[in-house]
Amino acid sequence: MWVDPEDDPREAETNARGEKAVLAEYLDHYRKTLEMKCDGLDAEQLARRSVPPSTMSLLGLVRHMAAVEHSWFQRQMQAKDEPRLFGKNEDRDADFNEAVADQAVVDEAFATWREQIAAADAFYEGVDDLGATVDLDGHEVEIRDIVVHMIEEYARHCGHADLLRECIDGRTGQ
User: Fold this and answer.
1) Is the separation of the CB atoms in 149 and 24 below 8 Å?
2) Measured between alpha carbons, how far is 135 from 119 in angstroms, rounded to an integer?
3) pLDDT band at 4 (very low <50, low <70, confident <90, very high)
4) CA 73 to each of CA 53, 116, 155, 165: distance values in angstroms, whole numbers, following the listed order
5) Are 146 and 72 in contact (CB under 8 A)?
6) Cβ atoms of 71 and 125 closer than 8 Å
7) Secondary structure (3-state) at 102
8) In whole angstroms, how far apart are CA 9 and each of 17, 34, 38, 101, 147?
9) Is pLDDT at 1 greater than 60 in this prediction?
10) How high is the pLDDT of residue 13?
11) Which Pfam families match (predicted)?
12) Rg of the Cα trace of the chain?
């Protein structure tokens, strides 16, 4: 176990009620889980790759999730005409490929990820109808569907993060 259950930052003091609150709580839970998987590691450990030829690392996952938060909440749901985070050099995997063992890269990744979470939360707070739709390349998609997709994205990558962390120092769980 990484932390005692009473010290786990993911434990809500209240039970969420209603669809919007429940979805927000699940999303927050997985965001905190990813952060916990990275806790206490240095730049080299965060940038350590999984198994060749994969470029996946914990740092890459943080950068990737910052890009995913930005893409869905800013570029898609709010139709902001902004360039993709990372990958501006046409490397669609730059979030992983450019995740190098440099403290400045680590600091930027976590700052960008936290900025994107704050922006996503601010947008979501103002959503009154999860059934409202956004146009994704000619397809109407409900906001709730995108939020559920975000939960799924985090859940999948938290599984990757658990394996990556275990390879680094043997820590598993939570």
Assistant:
1) no
2) 20
3) low
4) 31, 8, 18, 28
5) yes
6) no
7) coil
8) 19, 12, 14, 27, 21
9) no
10) 61
11) MST (PF04978)
12) 17
Q: What is the pTM of this model?
A: 0.91
Task: Cite the DSSP H helix spans in the chain.
Answer: 19-38, 43-47, 58-69, 94-97, 103-125, 143-169
Instruction: Determine phi and psi for 151, rounding to 5 degrees.
Output: -60, -45
What pLDDT digit, counting tens, does each position of 117-173 carry?
A: 999 999 999 999 999 999 988 899 999 999 999 999 999 999 999 999 999 988 877
Residue 2: Cβ within 10 Å count: 14
pLDDT at 9 over 90: no
**How much is the mean pLDDT over the chain?**
90
What residue has token string 């030829």?
A: 53
62 neighbors 157 (Cβ within 8 angstroms) = no
CATH architecture of 14-169: Up-down Bundle (1.20)
Three-state secondary structure call for residue 103: helix
Closest-CA residue to 68 (of 11, 106, 30, 41): 30
Please say whether the beta carbons of 164 and 58 come within 8 A.
yes
Task: Report residue 141: phi and psi, to 5°.
Answer: -125, 135
- 148 or 85: which carries more pLDDT confidence? 148
Q: Is the peptide bond before 53 cis (omega within 30 degrees of 0)?
A: yes
